[in-house]
Amino acid sequence: MEHFESKLGIDPKRVEKARQLAKDIAVDVVNFVQKYSTVSVERTICRFFGIDGINEEGVPLPNVVVDHLKEKGALENGAALYIGNAVLETGMTPQEIAEAIAADKLDLTKLPMHNIDDIKGVVDELADKAIKIIDEKKAERQRMLEELGDPPQPYIYVIVATGNIYEDVVQAQAAVRQGADIIAVIRSTAQSLLDYVPYGATTEGFGGTYATQENFRIMRKALDEVAREVKRYIRQTNYSSGLCMPEIAALGALERLDVMLNDALYGILFRDINMIRTMVDQYFSRIILGYAGIIINTGEDNYLTTADAYEQGYTVISSQLINEQLALLAGIPEEQMGLGHAFEMDPSLENGFLYELAQAQLSRELFPKAPLKYMPPTRFMTGNIFRGLVQDAMFNVVGIWTKQGIQLLGMMTEAIHTPFLSDRYVAIDTAKYIFNNMRNIGDEVIFKPGGIIQRRAQQVLEQAIELLEKMREDGLFKSLEKGVFANTKRPIKGGKGLDGVFEKGKYYYNPFVEKMLKKQLDL
What we know:
Layout: H1 12-33, E1 36-38, H2 39-48, H3 61-71, H4 79-90, H5 94-102, H6 116-148, E2 155-160, H7 165-178, E3 182-185, H8 213-230, E4 235-239, H9 245-254, E5 259-261, H10 264-271, H11 275-292, E6 295-297, H12 303-306, H13 313-329, E7 337-338, E8 340-342, H14 352-366, E9 373-375, H15 385-401, E10 406-408, H16 421-437, H17 441-444, H18 452-474, H19 476-482, E11 501-503, H20 511-522
Helix pairs in contact: 1-13, 1-18, 2-3, 2-9, 3-5, 4-6, 7-8, 7-16, 9-11, 10-11, 11-20, 13-14, 13-18, 14-15, 14-18, 15-16, 18-19
InterPro entries: Cbl-dep_enz_cat, Lys-AminoMut_A, Lys-AminoMut_asu_sf
GO molecular function: catalytic activity; cobalamin binding
């Protein structure tokens, strides 16, 4: 923090205080979750070992293997140990082992157990193969960035959400030609509540398209094609959240996605996923994403869809600080933290724009290296598309002024329907006009000492510190039970997916945590 120069008149000692509180909360969470694993973490290990495909009933083979171990009461020592042992004993590949289990021809728990060090040797070899693929994907991204160039921030981010991956490709390529830098494939409604990852290319999602490995692959190929055409690297985004958080992170790493929405707090608050399950899943998923060079996007912007942006702006700052510390503990560098916030003040609020500017500048000053993810107005969008376009324009002004990293463009028809190609064109065209015309306004304008903007930012930071102090006392889990974020209370033993959590046994081994974290933290 030595070079902390604040346009907002923020005291660097208060920033340090806020960070330390957030760190204490995060360390507490990580110490707790390291004792547990989940069915989704174990399925992720299976996927990294090359297990793929489905059985006759359409159940993904990673689920078949993990459910088999769970039914036999053997899950506490983890899937890696049993698969490694079976490779030693039978000479089969992990994929062949999974197929044999699916055909009822193999029981992993009945095989004679080999020496634990020999098993770990096999497991490490399998892990190294998967890590090599991810290393190759990272190198490929780097080569393409050098060859095609990286567009300036804020990256222009738009969504496609047809439900059909082939239709999504057409829309995505059109958006890139119009000027988009990041394409996010919105996930089919409620996929976050499925405790498995659908298989293959999909053509019928509702409100979005299923996140599958094949769909990732199809979109990656299409975006690389259009990137060479427009001569700039295009980033691909999907959702690594919900009950399959780490599995989808693994698929994103294997298929060279660039950005993934990844925030357990969002799943707890807005999808009622059990907090222990999703914090355990998040820790492993973030280790994977950090290692793979994928930017994470967090979901603080959603708090302001249920809570008032003026009254509760400080909850966003508190959550960003906690998310930053949780990410650091999982080996994610600041340059990969797309911490979320949003332009959600009530448009009828006098000086609302100044408050938005203060909040966005505060996020920028607190996280100087982060490619912050800035969300457009949604809560106060109406059927008046002309006012909507003005609201989005003001959002874009704050975005360029405060040097946001990732700008999720608002659409003038936001409150009416899924955007048409023409709506997307207008949104991109407007954003490019504003970004170009106001490129350096943030370097030119200083804020009046003791004025509305400085006072607001200082007040929000103090409120955030106050909340973090309470949260440190209670711990994150109890704080979520009390409803500190988004006016939403969740019980620690409630929500979906708790039955998929288990305490690690004596011989539990997950090679990826050690290997990926060690490399990341050594950097």
